[in-house]
Amino acid sequence: MKRVVERASIIGKGNILRFLEKILDEGYIVDNRNKNLLIKLGENYLVLRRWNENFLAITYTRNVVPRGFDVKRVLGKISGYKLKIL
What we know:
By secondary structure, this protein is an alpha+beta fold. It is built from 2 helices and 5 strands, in the order ααβββββ. A hairpin with a 2-residue loop joins β1 and β2. α1 crosses α2.
């Protein structure tokens, strides 16, 4: 999540929540491995880890596919997820 927030900080501090909402609105689930989801947003990737009933962002990469994931398929659009600030 730190990298996601750092990326959003580059865009502008007032846009952090909008950037995270954009990931949920425009992102596609590319792969599902164990408790991790790989989300594609444009040329960037976000790894979400399932934690209890929620997801926690753990990695954000630009133009690099995280190791261990298959990006040759798209599982579907992200739907039904909400942002929760802890």
